[in-house]
Fold each of these.
Amino acid sequence: MSVFAPDSLELNRKLPLWYQVSQSLRASILGRTPQAPLRLPTEERLAEHYGVSVLTMRQALKELETEGLISRHRRRGTFIEPEARRTRPVRLLGSVDTIVAQQSGDATTLLEHGPAALPPELAEHFAGVSEATAYRRLRRDPDTGEATNWAENYIHPRVAPHIDPADLERGWPMTKVLRDGVGVRISRITDTLEARLADPETAKLLDVPLLSPILHYTGVTYDEDGQVVDVALIHYRGDRFSFSVTLQAH
């Protein structure tokens, strides 16, 4: 039986390895093609692929099993759950690589892009700038076609001309577009997550009742000079995502 081939990952040794591996493997699973095999390689082969110990790999797989993305069977192996209903955790921990991995996997539609006035609440991030370039995207579960979240990105005018919309249309997260497509050297991303109620636009795009629970994410991306290059506003369906924070004790 053929086995599923996960993407590679460059690990950051300052962060929990099991977490980085689980997020990378999760993105590979969610972004798989319909024809991809459902059987995963053995723990040993996965550990070799990611360059980690079998114990670390086992912990990463346990995370995915808890999420309902895989099932593990004695003597038979580990399999992707093709019809699993996914409640995805929004995690505020990770390197840029793990953030990119977490944002990957959904089918993406670029709704519109172009110059836009800055919302008053974002003005503090763009000193001396009254207008940015806005990108609006709708993300769907690749298996069911169900809308899962929609995103607005406000990009600094000095960066926006270098963005290729085709990268977004093929599903690249904006973080990956900025880093790999434009060449921005990202120094940090500040995340804020809060509970809100779906406004008319969000309810329509996500096909949920008006005033239903929404997870509202704000991500502020800084370059190596400490300047803001992107402010992302992402609206997640409250019934498809959960909020998770990992704290390291030293």
Amino acid sequence: MTETPTVPSDSALDSAVRRLADADRLLLALDFDGTLAPFVDVPRGARALPEAKAALDRLEKLPRTWVAYVSGRPLASLEAVTEADEDALLIGSHGVEIRFGRDGVSLDLDEDERTTLQRLGETLQELVDAFPGTKLEVKPVGFGVHYRTVEGDRGAEVVRRAYEAAGAVSDGLTVRDGKDIIEFSVREANKGDGIERLREYTHATAVLFAGDDVTDEDGLRVLRPENGDVGVKVGPGDTAAQYRVADEQAVASLLTLLAEARASSTA
């Protein structure tokens, strides 16, 4: 596990954001749930806080500035909750699905992957049917078992049983244990891969990435602070990020500051 660093003060983060605003080509790569949008029990109902949305709308209109959403959600779900237009940059399914504007990336599963995916879905559905409060989320190359509303302390039992059930299907699955969700995929990819693809596509000279979950650590670890990249951890937990903020509202305030500074820098 990554050791938690001493996180600099708010004034240090403000200074870093102002320096970031002067980047020649700036990429904002942001997790969605728990970073821009509060968690909700119905995933399709999540929306970014109005202040964050306003700041991002302003930023993506500025010269040499790109806004991208990097999420564990399937691409179709991410498109809906971000209210993305046709030109949006989206990384879905932890880097498996990529949409660079109007050009998408297809998922061509081979026969073995399709067979494993079908068996995995059937097995995890049986588990979900046996545990009230759980929900199975279908993803392009796997499934997620949500247990946010499971009563008492049975969440740990759900995770254990899910590991056992998935392991009986295949020992080659990619497993991600997030906030109240355990995910199994038949194809490997992570948010770090997605950010590197975005950096290459935009030719960004500096990147801001913010995220709240353990799956976001893959994205934080590929940042290059020596080149001006800024990583922000939202909420508690061990992290590779240089900076930490408390919650989604703090992210919204940070983005508002960045939008104002970037507008002045590119004027």
Amino acid sequence: MRRALVLARRGVGKTSPNPTVGCVVVRGGAIVGEGWHRRAGTPHAEVHALRQAGDLARGADVYVTLEPCSHFGKTPPCADALVKAGVGRVFVGMVDPNPKVCGRGIERLRSAGIDVAAGILEAECRRLNEPFVKHVTTGLPFVILKSAMTMDGKTATATGDSRWITNEKSRHYVHKLRSMVDAVMVGVGTVMADNPQLTARTPRGRDPLRVVVDSSLRTPPDAQMLHQESTAATLITTVSSDVKLITSLESRGAEILRCRERQGRVDLRDLLAQLGSRGVQSVLLEGGSELAGEALRAGLIDKFVLFYAPKVLGGADGFGLFAGPSASRMDECHRFERVSVRRFGDDVMIEAYPEGSCLPGS
């Protein structure tokens, strides 16, 4: 199953709206077939692995990170393919939370006389498909907050300078993160201050949908993100109905999305719901502090990816990660669990989840 997970990770960022899946076929203690889901609309992991195994699949053990599908989509059911191949046993990482499957694939295999064991390395398999699980069960995208900070928690100097806090290795990983998500989101303040491109500048990287939260349409017409040679679109979300501003931005290729208003601003819950209805499974929230603070207090962040560089600004000025009111007591703090730490040179990346957070079905 660990090998199946390694294979599945090759498809991360390429299979949406489908999950990423890896499959291994074992005969006589040796791997005879491997596969992973490579792109939406193409054969699933089980099909690739069975093709490689050929006749050796008959009576073999199959390890698959996600329950084989049992319904017709753009491809035939994988459960039927396993039955036809005559496999002996199937080991499943996690049951598919998709209501169209959810146990039906396992039932199909068992009804054909195939032994099935589920829940093998389930936590790892579930973590691999966090965006898929969140979206298929709630209709909402999985939100990841990413930020880079100094050791004293500053995201920019008092003048707004933030280039560069972290080192090149950290920044390269961020571009990799962008290529793994469906959308990257920033507030209009970040657009005006940093003029970001919001592209995934990695070899064979896929640019995500660029989303700007811009309640009053202040995005400059000459913003870099509106002038990218990229297949990804730029979506500007607003509560404004100013025809002149809308026309100006649309003439530069941006799509304008009207959202419900909350205290004069874009209602983030409504925005996420609209993104989810468009098939967006994952959002990388990159800035700025107003947007991050509002998302934090609304409980909309599913995962935190925070980079700390070995630097301090010193003093009380400079910008922090979250704007707005903070907790008045320590026992009111936002707490985290499932914390992991990784280093990129001298930079430290902390990955964590809000305490008590749990995806449906976990």
Amino acid sequence: MLLHLNTFLEIALGSNSPKRLFIGLLISKFFKTKYLADKSFSINTPTHKYYISTNLFDFEQEKAKAISLITLFFEGDSAKYTSLAHSFLGYLTLAEWSIAQWKHFDHHLRQFEV
């Protein structure tokens, strides 16, 4: 889960860039408002294959990386957060990236009852 969350943070920070999904290009504007609304993500929301890993990773290393990336995201240069597109939703503002990060972390913390 931490590797998955770290990958999503890296995209917002500009160090990873998955290819845009064609379906996202077509219908993302219809889902963007719902995605960024106050309601939590549903449990069975599909995951882009870019964010899925079956390899084993060191938990402490990923935890330290997560802390570093979160700090960088919230204290870093906000101008670069709008330079790369979300794989489904497209380009997001800093406020939209912040909401997406919060909802994504919240979704997985609830999933694992943390």
